[in-house]
From TrEMBL:
Pfam families noted in UniProt: CMD
InterPro entries: AhpD-like, AhpD_core, CMD-like, Uncharacterised_peroxidase-rel
Limits of the Carboxymuconolactone decarboxylase-like domain: 46-127
Domain of life: Bacteria
GO MF, any single term: peroxiredoxin activity
Protein name, UniProt field: Carboxymuconolactone decarboxylase-like domain-containing protein
NCBIfam families noted in UniProt: ahpD_dom, peroxid_rel
Length: 187
């Protein structure tokens, strides 16, 4: 296997039992094990705690659509220049049904994408919270409410944006490499 992280990556035999189960499930569902699953497996308990929260925010039914959550993930990851997350969540965005050209445009500069008012409000909010968290004010919620988001949806947006800012930093700090499979998904 090519190097996927700047840190050691445990072998299947050396990985935590819960991590091995997740690898098996990913292989069955996706046809491959995401490199982020392997790269973070060095600290098995911590990885599983991260995965449980990440999975709840991104992969389970929530207050926002899958496309909305993945779109914010791609915006945040692009702003943070996180290659792993921009590529892998760009693939997820396409897989959930966003047209490839639009998804690619969101990844580079969401302002150039043909977005609905709701999508644009979520992207603008994700951008401000990512780049200027200390400048957030109650008035930053107004554009979200103006496009119909309720408090539960706004909280979920904040949680997704926060999760991706953290995950981007882990992935970038340790040189995680996206799986080749992501580049062709949804095209």
């Amino acid at each position: 296997m090519n190097k996927i992280s700047w840190l050691a990556v445990p072998t299947e035999e050396g990985a935590h039992e819960g991590v091995r189960k997740l690898w098996t499930k990913a292989e069955a569902n996706l046809g491959f094990v995401p490199n982020v699953f392997r790269a973070q497996a060095l600290n098995g308990e911590q990885f599983l705690a991260w995965w449980n929260y990440f999975n709840l925010l991104v992969n389970k039914a929530g207050h926002l659509s899958n496309i909305e959550r993945e779109m914010m993930a791609v915006v945040v990851s692009g702003l943070n220049r996180c290659v792993y997350c921009a590529v892998s969540h760009g693939a997820a965005l396409r897989e959930y049904g966003m047209e490839a050209q639009k998804a690619d445009t969101v990844a580079v500069n969401w302002r150039h994408a043909d977005l609905s008012a709701r999508e644009a409000a979520l992207c603008a909010f994700a951008e401000k919270l990512t780049l200027h968290p200390a400048g957030m004010a109650e008035s930053d919620l107004t554009p979200l409410r103006d496009v119909g988001l309720d408090d539960a949806q706004i909280l979920e947006a904040v949680q997704v944006i926060g999760m991706f800012n953290m995950t981007n930093r882990v992935s970038s700090a340790l040189g995680f490499i996206p799986n080749a499979e992501y580049h062709s998904k949804g095209r």
